[in-house]
């Protein structure tokens, strides 16, 4: 049975318990709780909206978003400015409703035994029986390249190959004694129209200032890889209730970056929104297989 990131929130809660009380049975219980159907045989898809902040265009959109007026790619319809988000507003949004499968999620021990570097790319293709030059191979290579790009000023980034590694990264960012909360997009009612449709803003249920956060985005790879990054700056985390034109109901996670002065001019959000770096906030919605960590104190 498919699960949303409510189950991942539970995973991180139980993982925290395991670290605190040393219960060796906890992780086994987590694996049982998070079972779901392996409903896809393809590599994990990723929207690359995380290429925030100056790493250049994402690999999938490098040609389609090079023009500042090109809005044809539906995957780019996730950006907005905070001043334009109002109750009753109708906006087109790309919302793929994706889920991880157990075959994609490796334990830390399993993941640590597999090389994860561009240098090992030819060997990795052989390991996973992927043909050189195939779409899967190109996606893998792009993921490895992106994971090895140096972070921009003030940013800390890490490509985690297991959920345990995601958890360890968040502890390094927030501190070992800081309680954190996990937020994610939840589809309350599945859409039957497709990935892109008009959504009405029903309610902005949470508006949380959070200078420090960790955002994690899934990457295309034979198993689950999470691009997690953090940059201390003025951010706002919004939870927005949306209603699609087909009746789809979404509790949508979005992050607003209030300072974009360090971002690359090539970032696709500027073309979509028609603004320049540093002149406006840039917000974006998260698909259901991405998530954000914020200090628990920020929500109080």
UniProtKB/TrEMBL annotation:
The keyword Signal applies. Keywords: Signal. Residues 79-296 form the BURP domain. Residues 1-22 form the signal peptide. It comes from the Eukaryota. Residues 43-71 are annotated as: Disordered. Pfam families: BURP. Residues 43-61 have a biased composition (Basic and acidic residues). The keyword Metal-binding does not apply. PROSITE patterns: BURP. This is BURP domain-containing protein. It comes from Lactuca virosa.
């Amino acid at each position: 049975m498919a699960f949303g990131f409510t189950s991942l929130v539970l995973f991180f809660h139980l993982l925290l318990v395991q670290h605190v009380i040393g219960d060796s049975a906890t992780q086994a219980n987590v694996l049982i709780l998070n079972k779901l159907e392996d409903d896809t045989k393809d590599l994990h898809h990723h929207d690359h909206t995380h290429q925030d902040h100056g790493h250049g265009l994402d690999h999938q959109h490098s040609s389609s978003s090079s023009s500042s007026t090109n809005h044809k790619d539906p995957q780019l319809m996730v950006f907005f400015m905070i001043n334009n988000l109002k109750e009753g507003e109708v906006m087109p949004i790309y919302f793929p409703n994706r889920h991880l499968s157990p075959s994609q999620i490796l334990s830390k021990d399993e993941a640590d035994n597999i090389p994860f570097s561009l240098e090992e790319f030819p060997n990795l293709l052989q390991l996973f029986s992927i043909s050189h030059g195939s779409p899967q191979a190109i996606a893998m290579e792009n993921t490895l390249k992106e994971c090895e790009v140096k972070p921009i000023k003030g940013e800390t980034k890490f490509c985690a190959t297991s959920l345990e590694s995601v958890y360890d990264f968040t502890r390094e960012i927030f501190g070992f004694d800081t309680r954190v909360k996990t937020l994610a997009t939840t589809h309350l009612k599945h859409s039957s129209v497709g990935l892109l449709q008009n959504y009405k803003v029903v309610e902005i249920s949470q508006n949380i200032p959070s200078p420090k956060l960790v955002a994690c985005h899934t990457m295309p790879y034979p198993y689950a890889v999470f691009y997690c990054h953090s940059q201390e700056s003025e951010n706002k985390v919004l939870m927005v209730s949306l209603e699609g034109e087909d009746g789809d109901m979404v509790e949508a996670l979005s992050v607003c970056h209030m300072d974009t002065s360090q971002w690359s001019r090539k970032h696709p959000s500027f073309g979509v929104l028609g603004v320049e770096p540093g002149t406006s906030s840039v917000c974006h919605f998260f698909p259901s297989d991405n998530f954000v960590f914020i200090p628990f104190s920020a929500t109080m």
